[in-house]
Design brief:
The complex is a heterodimer of chains A (464) and B (102). Chain A is an alpha/beta fold. In chain A, 59% of the residues lie in helices and 8% in strands. The chains are: A alpha/beta (464), B mainly alpha (102).
Chain lengths: 464, 102
């Protein structure tokens, strides 16, 4: 196959990838979009086989490895519970990162195949591209591993900080740049390996200080990194499909990080510098501790909801932890049968990754046109009879609007307190991930339901 | 003077960032999780580099280090391609509209 024809095929797969993302603008077109993505990938792989034209023993091994990886991936995709999606995505990011590192290494060891020059005499531009690709890939890999461990609960979600952390990271980052410079000058293998090792370390150090509540930002940021790594490798291999894809994924991750930061009213840098979400930052909570709290049981809650004409449900990470989405939908079915209007309100940073709650509700067969984003539904709280807060906390805290001292001041929140009554399902009065007390617990119109989210929802259904 | 092909690739790259910017802003927030899993899957197109690396060389029986790293990258990318697209498919299949009242 001529190189020109090959390039055109790669361009076609790049376009199909753009269409795959375009499809996600609405759930109706999204499935078709995913199909475009699959076709694009198939084209890229098949033309690469044909262009290589080497159907020897190596090809057989290649197919075997492809099959091993593919069946492993398919197995995971079918078995993974929807609640574990954040970990899965973090895990997948780490694989892209590591794959980028490996491809960069093979290009470095065997530059002739990729037309990059010869060993010890690689083109300067290619060296820069491949070491950037390898470095970003390595950061993506180790950073995603840490994110995975934190999301999975194997590692504590508390931020790990130490003195001089930022200077150390800065130093490591600069030393990667210096090493790339010397690699271009001297072309010694050792520099290349050192770049990769330092980058692994850097990825690890960048993510350990970031707390559980900031995970939506981290996971989007790593998404972005995996794209830039792919683009770096794309430049090295002079491959259009890879360059287009890398740019798409890179900007997609960057936009998601931006949306998540805005949802928390935090600057991107303050998230990256980390340390948020620890317990040591709680603002003067002591004075409030003795305030009276109204608590109720499932019977009270059922009574309130049965007599309501509209109910808004506010799900949060706690719903995912308790796997309460199915129980919730059953409760809503009964309510709807009683003529109650029910809708769902989703805060942009609810859960542990962008869109986390939407996927869980979709899994429980909640139609997506009953699920609304913050801006769409926030005015409706004033006219709603009952707000049912299940597993959310900080995103409903009125302190974000009223208390300039609060660490979450300025964060857009769901105006739950404006509804006639608030049912707040929670296991205890303990503060949320931001480590701050929620004013809402002590409001006149709030009824606390102390129980596991799933069990409480089931009990309410029984009492309806 | 002839233009360096690198400049063409850079142009593609920058224009693609712009396309990505506009396309991703039009993605509905409820599909942000599938967006992440599908971007994951497509960034595994890095497998083309792995294929070239693993098939390089004319040896029939023995493989050099570059080949081996290529094979490893193929396994990783393949997990991502199949896992990413299938899990996206699985998620998207769950998004349903309200049933019409019978």
């Amino acid at each position: 196959m001529s190189p020109n024809l090959l390039a055109i095929f790669y361009l076609i797969s790049g376009i199909l990838f753009i269409l795959a993302l375009r499809g996600l603008s609405s759930p109706e077109t999204s499935r078709q979009g995913n199909l475009f993505g699959i076709i694009g990938m198939a084209i890229a792989i098949i033309v690469t086989f044909i262009a290589a034209g080497n159907f020897s023993t190596g090809f057989l091994y290649l197919l075997i490895f492809l099959l091993i990886g593919g069946s492993l991936g398919a197995f995971i995709a079918f078995r993974i519970p929807m609640t574990a999606m954040p970990e899965l995505v973090a895990g997948f990011h780490s694989l892209v990162g590591l794959a980028a590192v490996f491809v960069a290494i093979s290009a470095f060891l065997n530059p002739e195949v990729f037309n990059l020059g010869s060993v010890g005499n690689i083109k300067i531009a290619s060296l820069i591209e491949m070491s950037l690709g390898a470095s970003i890939g390595a950061i993506t890999f180790s950073g995603s591993i840490i994110a995975f461990l934190k999301l999975r609960g194997i590692m504590s979600g508390n931020p790990i900080t130490f003195i001089g952390q930022h200077y150390l990271n800065l130093f490591l980052g600069l030393s990667v740049v210096v090493l790339i410079f010397y690699l271009c000058k001297i072309q010694s293998d050792n520099f290349f390996w050192l770049i990769i090792v330092i980058s692994f370390l850097l990825g690890f150090l960048l993510i350990i200080p970031i707390g559980g509540a900031d995970m939506p930002v981290v996971i989007s940021m790593l998404n972005s990194y995996s794209g830039w790594a792919a683009a770096g490798i794309g430049f090295t291999l002079e491959n259009t499909a890879l360059i287009i894809t890398g740019a798409l994924v890179g900007s997609s991750g960057a936009i998601l990080s931006y949306i998540m930061c805005k949802g928390m009213n935090r600057s991107f840098f303050s998230v990256i510098l980390g340390g948020f979400g620890g317990t040591d930052q709680s603002s003067s909570g002591e004075s409030k501790e003795q305030k009276p709290v109204k608590s109720g049981n499932a019977d009270d809650a059922a009574f309130l909801m049965k007599n309501a004409s509209s109910v808004i449900i506010v799900p949060g990470y706690g719903m995912a932890v308790a796997q309460a989405q199915h129980a919730l939908r059953e409760m809503v079915d009964v309510l709807k049968k009683n003529g109650v209007k029910v809708s769902y309100a989703i805060h942009p940073v609810a859960g542990r990754m962008p869109g986390h709650m939407n996927v869980l509700l979709a899994e429980a067969n909640v139609p997506y046109d009953e699920v609304f984003e913050l801006e769409e539904i926030n005015n409706d709280f004033a006219n709603c009879d009952v707000a049912y807060v299940i597993g959310a906390n900080d995103v409903t805290n009125p302190a974000a609007k009223s208390d300039p001292q609060s660490p979450i001041y300025g964060m857009p929140i769901l105006d739950v307190e404006k509804s006639k009554s608030v049912l707040f399902v929670k296991r205890s009065l303990s503060p949320g991930y931001a480590g701050i007390d929620n004013d809402l617990f002590y409001r006149e119109n709030t009824l606390m339901l102390f129980a596991d989210a799933k069990k409480m929802t089931e009990d309410i259904t029984k009492n309806l | 003077m002839e233009i360096d092909p690198f400049i063409f690739r850079l142009s593609i790259f920058i224009l693609s960032i712009f396309i990505g910017y506009y396309v991703v802003w039009s993605v509905t927030p409820s599909l942000h999780t599938p967006l992440m899993s599908v971007t994951n899957a497509i960034s595994s197109v890095i497998i083309v580099g792995a294929i070239i690396a693993s098939l390089a060389g004319d040896s029939e029986t023995s493989f050099n280090a570059a080949n081996i790293f290529g094979f490893l990258a193929i396994v990783l990318a393949a997990v991502n391609i199949f896992g990413g697209f299938l899990v996206t498919q699985r998620m998207l299949a769950m998004y349903k509209k309200k049933k019409k009242i019978k």
